[in-house]
């Protein structure tokens, strides 16, 4: 069954305390290559049957109206999960 992935991230001007905590922990664990971390949310919407343009539009509407808080978050991606990616 196809899966639509929705990625939501905090708006750039919004503080991200979880991302900041992760960013502080990475160097202590030996990961020194990263200068900033932002933590977001990922939703996977399973579809019965084929994903049409209409279904993708409905997923985007659901993402903007229900899955995200438009005051502090941006919907950054709504796409069908590539089967190769899903197999990882």
Folded structure, characterized:
It is an enzyme of class 6 (ligase). Keywords: ATP-binding, Cytoplasm, Ligase, Nucleotide-binding, Purine biosynthesis. InterPro entries: PurS, PurS-like_sf. One of its GO terms (cellular component) is cytoplasm. This is Phosphoribosylformylglycinamidine synthase subunit PurS. This protein has 88 residues and is an alpha+beta fold. It has a domain at 1-13 and 39-79: 2-Layer Sandwich (Mth169, Chain: A). The protein is 35% helix and 25% strand. It has helices at 17-28, 53-67, 83-86, and strands at residues 3-10, 41-46, 73-80. It has a 3-stranded antiparallel beta sheet with strand order 2-1-3, covered by helices on one side. It is elongated, with a radius of gyration of 16 Å. The two termini are 16 Å apart. The model has no long low-confidence stretch (mean pLDDT 93).
Produce a short descriptive summary.
With 88 residues, the chain is an alpha+beta fold.
Question: Characteristics of this structure?
Answer:
88 residues; alpha+beta; Mth169, Chain: A; three-stranded antiparallel β-sheet; 35% helix; 25% strand; elongated
Topology:
Elements: E1 3-10, H1 17-28, E2 41-46, H2 53-67, E3 73-80, H3 83-86
Antiparallel strand pairs: 1-2, 1-3
- Note the quaternary state here: single chain
Strand count? 3
The termini sit apart by 16 Å
Low-confidence stretches: none
User: At the fourth CATH level, what is the homologous superfamily of the domain at 1-13 and 39-79?
Assistant: Phosphoribosylformylglycinamidine synthase subunit PurS
| Helix/strand order, N-terminal first | EHEHEH
Which fold does the CATH topology of the domain at 1-13 and 39-79 refer to? Mth169, Chain: A
Q: Into which percent range does the helicity of residues fall?
A: 25-40%
Q: What is the mean pLDDT?
A: 93
CATH architecture of the domain at 1-13 and 39-79: 2-Layer Sandwich
**Morphology:** elongated
Query: What strand order characterises the main sheet?
Result: 2-1-3
Largest sheet: 3 strands, antiparallel
Assign the CATH class of the domain at 1-13 and 39-79.
Alpha Beta
Structural class: alpha+beta
Portion in beta strands = 25-35%
Radius of gyration: 16 Å
Tally of separate helices? 3
Catalytic activity: N(2)-formyl-N(1)-(5-phospho-beta-D-ribosyl)glycinamide + L-glutamine + ATP + H2O = 2-formamido-N(1)-(5-O-phospho-beta-D-ribosyl)acetamidine + L-glutamate + ADP + phosphate + H(+)
EC number: 6.3.5.3
Protein name: Phosphoribosylformylglycinamidine synthase subunit PurS
Enzyme class: ligase
């Amino acid at each position: 069954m196809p899966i639509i992935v929705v990625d939501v991230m905090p708006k750039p001007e919004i503080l991200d305390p979880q991302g900041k905590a992760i960013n502080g922990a990475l160097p202590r664990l030996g990961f020194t290559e990263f200068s900033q971390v932002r933590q977001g949310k990922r939703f996977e919407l399973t579809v019965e049957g084929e994903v049409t343009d209409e279904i993708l539009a409905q997923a985007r509407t659901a993402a903007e109206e229900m899955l995200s808080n438009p005051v502090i978050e941006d919907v950054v991606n709504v796409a069908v999960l590539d089967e190769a990616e899903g197999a990882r």
